[in-house]
Amino acid sequence: RLFMYGAISIFQKAGFPEDLRNMLERIIEIDAEDEQIRLALAETNLKLKRTDVAILHFEASLSLLRKKGLDDLFIRAAEHIIYYRPDNLGLCRELASLYLGRLEGAKAEKLLLFCHQQDPKDIETLDLLVRLCIDGGNEKKAVSLLLQKAAILEEGGKRDEALEVCELVLRLDHRNADARQFINNAKKLRPRPSLIPRRLETTSLVPM
């Protein structure tokens, strides 16, 4: 295997991408589980402007990298995919979560704001945005996002989950009137069509 990687390095430095691609494809036919070879093949196809083929190999590498916990390589592959396929919102959120874990808030924010713009009611995106705000010390914005989440949950018939979110809001802002109103109404079991104040249902996210 060391000899094989050495040969690949020589081809890469020599600047013969077509020969390198042919060699990598033969290796992949023998060992499809080698994530390093898969990434090298993807990046070689990019150099050859075979973008669609490159993306297929990057995507094929993700499960291997995820399974082995190779976050650096996963991020490398995911960034390439998202650059060419920004509509992959699931991967955008996964990459944003990795960025947050590395305290790279600016990179995470860019992805999450894009996801929120594309699907304002996605709960996972809101959760990640809340995490971003709390990590950045912006609890006021976190509260606003949590109230949006509660409104979406309540609208979808998940009133108990919405109640838990409002209780979390009060832990961050014990004087929050909207959260208190929701909790008080829930405890009284009033048969109302919506416990969340109507004005919060259309609140849009203001970029941070």
Low-confidence stretches: none
Beta-strand fraction estimate: under 5%
Radius of gyration: 23 Å
Indicate the structural class.
mainly alpha
Largest sheet: none
The number of helical segments is 11
Oligomer: single chain
- How does the overall form come out from the CA principal axes? elongated
Description:
The protein has 208 residues and is an all-alpha fold. It is 75% helix and 0% strand. It contains 11 helices and no strands. The longest helix has 18 residues, at 51-68.
Q: What are its keywords?
A:
elongated; 208 residues; mainly alpha
Give the helices and strands, then pairings.
Blueprint: H1 2-14, H2 17-30, H3 35-47, H4 51-68, H5 71-84, H6 89-101, H7 105-118, H8 123-135, H9 139-155, H10 159-172, H11 177-188
Quick rundown:
By secondary structure, this protein is mostly helical. The chain is built from eleven helices and no strands. The model has no long low-confidence stretch (mean pLDDT 86).
